[in-house]
Specification:
By secondary structure, this protein is of the alpha+beta class. It has a domain of 97 residues: TolA/TonB C-terminal domain (2-Layer Sandwich). The chain is 25% helix and 14% strand. The longest helix is centred in the first third of the chain and has 30 residues.
Length: 225
């Protein structure tokens, strides 16, 4: 038999060999691509401008300090007053004032007495003298009016208050005018107090034995019992 020729199998290049063989092409190709991208980025990148960060400083004002205060020296001691000395002049002990008589000053020549200016007491609250103060005649009627005029919303909420009312009472004891002197703080209670004030009846005030018109003040109190 003729021996057949034996040939060695063909060796395939390894991955490392293939990488070494293509390294140069890959290296230079990536360098060229990076260069192109780099210059293209700078060419197409928008132009940037720096903002103005300048500022103005305020002018400094010089403050003038007040001058130093000079403390004045203490005042000089006041000298004691001199001792009084009796006058040496002679004074007549018979010093009298001439009496005033109607013979020397007749009544016709005397000036008239000043006229009293008539004032309207009802115009506004004012002091009016009296010796006997007026009294309330219809207390039960006033109590019923206060119950009737008490605002329901404030009564149910337990809100009360006192209204100080001025009354002008004439010589016969009739209320001619009334007005609020001190509010309760609630308009509804003030209005109710004015409605109750119209119900009051008084006795006439006396100045000694004469009936006089007067201004008096009475409190009107609303409270939940």
């Amino acid at each position: 038999m003729t021996p057949e020729a034996v040939t060695a199998p063909e060796m395939q290049p390894s991955a490392n060999d293939r990488l070494k063989s293509t390294f140069n092409s890959w290296f230079w190709g990536s360098m060229i691509a990076a260069t192109v991208v780099h210059f293209g980025t700078f060419a197409l990148w928008p132009e940037l401008q720096a903002e103005d960060f300048s500022f103005e400083s305020e002018e400094l004002e010089a403050i003038e300090l007040p001058p130093e205060i000079e403390i004045p020296p203490p005042p000089q001691q006041i000298s004691r007053p001199a001792t009084p000395v009796m006058a040496s002049a002679e004074i007549d002990e018979d010093i009298t004032i001439a009496p005033t008589t109607f013979e020397e000053n007749p009544v016709e020549d005397l000036p008239p007495p000043p006229e009293e200016e008539a004032t309207d007491l009802s115009a506004q609250p004012t002091f009016t003298p009296f010796t006997v103060a007026p009294t309330i005649q219809n207390r039960q009627e006033v109590v019923r009016a206060m119950t009737r005029e008490y605002p329901p919303l404030l009564r149910d909420a337990g809100i009360g208050g006192t209204v100080l009312v001025y009354f002008f009472i004439d010589e016969s004891g009739v209320v001619q005018d009334y007005r609020i002197h001190e509010s309760s703080g609630h308009q509804a209670l003030d209005d109710a107090a004015l409605a109750v004030a119209d119900v009051y009846r008084f006795t006439a005030a006396l100045n000694r034995d004469k009936k006089v018109p007067v201004w008096v003040q009475f409190p009107i109190t609303f409270q939940v019992r």
